[in-house]
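Why run this: before we spend reagent on co-expression, it is cheaper to look at a predicted model of the complex and decide which construct boundaries make sense. The entries below are exactly what would go into the expression plan.
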Amino acid sequence: ATYSLANERLRALEDIEREIGAILQNAGTVILELSKEKTNERLLDRQAAAFTASVQHVEAELSAQIRYLTQVATGQPHEGSSYSSRKDCQMALKRLDYARLKLSEVARTCEQMLEN
Amino acid sequence: MAQQRALPQSKETLLQSYNKRLKDDVKSIMDNFTEIIKTAKIEDETQVSRATQGEQDNYEMHVRAANIVRAGESLMKLVSDLKQFLILNDFPSVNEAIDQRNQQLRALQEECDRKLIALRDEVSIDLYELEEEYYSSSSSLCEANDLPLCEAYWRLDPDTDSTDCLSAPLLASPEPSAGGPLQAAAPTHSHAGGPGPTEHA
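The model came back. Tokens follow.
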């Protein structure tokens, strides 16, 4: 759920990667089909159409991604960070740890008193 | 300064080179595929003998198939480059991610602090009860010299009887020269000052 926007784009790129694999697969199937004595024309047509569609889709998607990057890229490195809040959070956790330590000391003292 | 100004241009050229690579690779895939299909056609006999022609076609197909695979791999590389570029330079999503992380961490911190404060309130009450128990029990009499808490108490008024000593820690607590435990207990006493005596009464 976190980092949804960036993740979406990355996931789209992963889909494109898979589609590139599908392109090669389709091309291979088409050529394999051609090499057969009796070719199944329907299958051939379907695979060839899938191949062309995949290639066009990949090209369009990648063009769109590059166009988006042209829009957002400024050339300056990003300078924001979550370090300060992370530090604050760590301090809070340390406080809790320390409190727990002290409490366990108190508990030990109590037990000692009970034993005596 | 000059370097900073040069950077956007290089980004621009980088993106343009990405675009060029994309176009080249796609074109290469399509062209090579078409050529392979064309080569598959059996041509009429020419001056070149059948066997030679077949060998040549075989070789050409190998090369073209390798070209297609190379173009595909190049596209993969392009996608990975784009991913990297996206992670490094996609400011809107980077900002969003940082905001979300900040919110998460702040919520966690607030929860921690809230729990700590709740713990403090509980512990101050418990400590008060513990001390009460301790001063009214016999162990405080026999081990008075061992514990600084007790010591401070006894030093302050040594002749108080056991009924009065219940409220005595409250009086003794502001003493700055008191020992470690008492110092630690002092703020809790001042905090629990309100509910303390009423409970006691």
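The radius of gyration of chain B is 42 Å. Residues 160-201 of chain B have pLDDT under 50 and may be disordered. Bring this page to Monday's planning discussion.
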